[in-house]
Every structure is written in C-alpha cells, then in structure tokens.
C-alpha cells in the first residue's frame, strides 16, 4: 500500500473563557488549547481519532510546517494516507495539553487574574484535567463520540483515562507502552530530574522568566536522566558500547571520554533549547499522580468495571520503564470485567522509545486494528 505524508499543516487555536475545574481544587480560566487535524470528518462524525501526546511531544502529530526543515510530526510514520492510522479513512486530532510549552496555555503565559506570567504559579495539572480539557475541544468540534483514543506512554495513560471518565464517548481505546500507574522506580527517576531543575541557580523558584534566565543546566541533566530510561541496554550497547570519543583515554573526571557521554550531552543540550523547565515539572508530576485504581482501593479490576469500549494494548519486551508486565495488569483487569481486549507484546530491541519507531510488526498490529475500526463506519 502506498503511503504519503499529510503534507503541510497549520495549527489551530481554541480559546475557553469558562473556568476548567482541576483535580487539585484550583481552576484555570481564559485559556487556549492548540490543536491540529488531519483527514476529513465524515458526515455523521463517526471517524474521529484523538491522539494523546507524551511528555515532550505536542499537538503536531503528523505532517510538516511549510518552510521549516525537519518539522515532521512526532508520529508521522504512523499517521497519514496509507499509513497504519490512515487519514484517507480517519479524521485525526492532536491536542496540545494545558501546561505545555508548545502553544497551549502554560507557565510562560500571562495569568489573567494577576496580569503577570504564571511561572511557578501555574496550577498543577493531572491526566484527568487534560482529558477534561480535550473533551471541551471535541465538544466545540461537534464530536460526541470518538472512533478511538490512541496514545503511547503518558499518552496511553490519557487514552486509558478517557475510557474511564468518558466511557460512552469512545468506541476503542488504544494504549501503547503504558502503565496503570508509575512504579516507585519511575517516580524516583522523575524526582531526580526535577531536583536537577529546581536546584539550578537560574531556576529562581520557577520565576526565571522575570530574570531573563533559563535553567539550562537543570534541563540538560533532566533530559539525560530521562533519555537513559527510554533506551534499552542492548540498544545503548549496540550504538555506543565502550567506544571512546578520542583515540586514547584522557584521564579526566570532567571531560567527555566515551561516545555515550557525548550523545547524552548532545540530547541534553538540544532539549534545554526548546523545553520549558516549569512544564517539565508539571508533566512529570502528572505522570506521578496517575493512578485511577487509587479511588477503588487499589483494585484495578474494579477500576475498569465502568469501561464500555474495546481495547488494544501493546508493549515491548525491552521496555523496562513501562514493562510488559504493567500492560498485562491492565489486560487482566479488562478480562476480569469481560471486556473486549486485544494484546500484543512485541519483541523489539529499542526499549521504551519503540512506540515511536517504525517497527513492521508493531505497525502491522496497529494497521490491522484500525482497518477493523474503519469497517464500522464504511
């Protein structure tokens, strides 16, 4: 099957004056959400698929921006004409979450209540809050029921939460490389990354915008820590091993000696140029807080008793951050409730990042599932 890009795309904005109640008890008003759409909405609006983004991604799921090099959407290999999520059949929506630094209202925007930049005063947001905000966008678009909600990693958590908070507004939930909650180890990684940021002298308690500063050192370290967890040991060994940067050891405790060090520093440098420090704190905390079973005494089976849609879950064997065992927990809870669930555990060497890559087995699973969904409205 021939595949193509959706081509050049344009972000759109939607403003909401009505306050959005947040899980914390706070509210946010007069906020904007940025989104993109691909494909055409059919006459009865039954072919819409919402794609939820992960930590450092955005609404820009597919396509390119005119005049910008290397501007492909973060899931461009998956979404487009003839691709597994085929825009010849589906109307795909990507929404940038509240608190992000890619256009939707976040810490770097003005607080309408004070007239000052939010900074550290931006309210803490959760996965539940993002799902409620996304539902408002769909309301404005006149979409009452989604064909599917799709997401990987933190996006997968949002997809799962959609199936619990709005069980009648979706027919399929597709959750990739995700978990029903973070393990203690994952929370620990997030906390170390946050401490790297908040202890950076340029952080200024989260009000660094007023000082004309950017806590780049903290962001670099945070990204390096995160990036290590996204890759498998096998991939790191294959790519870098113990290869030196120079011909001989330099016998230095501070200079770069190994190629893996050079790679991590490069990733950290890039990240510090485009990502917002307060946004990083907000999003990692939203990851920490996600635990829908908490309201059901920790019983995941009881948690999914209210779900109504069909499910596809997929995991990757070398993903040690969100291991297959965590996906199997969700599958068991769904089976306990006699829900229609499909599960694919894919033997891939890439670690957590596998959900972003073009593995033929992984894409084959998604293509087959979306073809099944498409038959519902053809």
From TrEMBL:
It is an enzyme of class 2 (transferase). Keywords: Acyltransferase, Amino-acid biosynthesis, Cytoplasm, Methionine biosynthesis, Transferase. One of its GO terms (molecular function) is homoserine O-acetyltransferase activity. It catalyses: L-homoserine + succinyl-CoA = O-succinyl-L-homoserine + CoA. Pfam families: Abhydrolase_1 (PF00561). Residues 47-358 form the AB hydrolase-1 domain. It comes from the Bacteria. Pathway: Amino-acid biosynthesis; L-methionine biosynthesis via de novo pathway; O-succinyl-L-homoserine from L-homoserine: step 1/1. The active site is at 153 (nucleophile), 319, 352. HAMAP family: MetX_acyltransf. Belongs to the AB hydrolase superfamily. MetX family. This is Homoserine O-succinyltransferase. It comes from Roseateles subflavus.
